[in-house]
Amino acid sequence: MKATYMLIWAACFTWVNGTSFAVQNNIYATGCSDNTVTSYNDMPFKVESFSESTLINEQLATTENEIIVTLSLKSVSDVLTFNKVTTPDNALEYSWEVKIDTNSDQVYDLSIALKHFKFPEASPEEGTILSHTQANTWIYNGDYSWSFGHPVEVYIDYDTKSIVMTALKSWDEFNQFDSQDTFTINSYYMVSGYENSSADTTGVETVGNVLNDQESDVSYSFIDIVGGNVAGASNEQRNSITPIIQMLLL
What we know:
Blueprint: E1 10-15, E2 20-24, E3 27-29, E4 36-37, H1 52-60, E5 66-73, E6 80-82, E7 92-101, E8 110-117, E9 125-127, E10 134-142, E11 145-151, E12 153-157, E13 162-168, E14 182-190, E15 197-201, E16 205-206, E17 210-212, E18 225-231, H2 235-249
């Protein structure tokens, strides 16, 4: 289902010179964070790299403490251009995320996401979905602001065209996570400035179930969501998702 509204998202950073800024519905505010960074590589939540073989072994050794998020796309092999000259500094340029409502109040308060923000004066670079993105959890603070949570493990399964991310239920942000939670999936691409962007969003499903979405409902295959799921709320849900995980590991 194609998004028909402005994608709501937010992030907070603080540069080494003490200037802080927030990205919120394309509006910047100050004084929002104590995270000090000087470049993308200094981001405290940056996941450097994981070998696919290592991650596959970890999936095979899944424990009850793991939450596995699968986000399937029409294509995951595209060569992407990051830090385009038309992308404003500090702006969100790419995003693939699963949002979860952990307290049944119809407000998504937790996100597991893969994102890329353009840092000031960053030069255009080509890469893959994983090469320039950060994978981590986000915690909703209210008023459309989000805080960094934990880095998550991530890999691309090219056979199923899926982004697979693994978080841990022992983290504080998952203390209310259970089998009654609902989730939705969003993707976003800033094509050329704030006035020209594209987004895809799905419906809503309960954790443990597979969420399907119409293919080719957006123009860009790398943000065209075709399905996904969140597994790990209970033993029953882990069993229900086992065939999908097995398929990912073939």
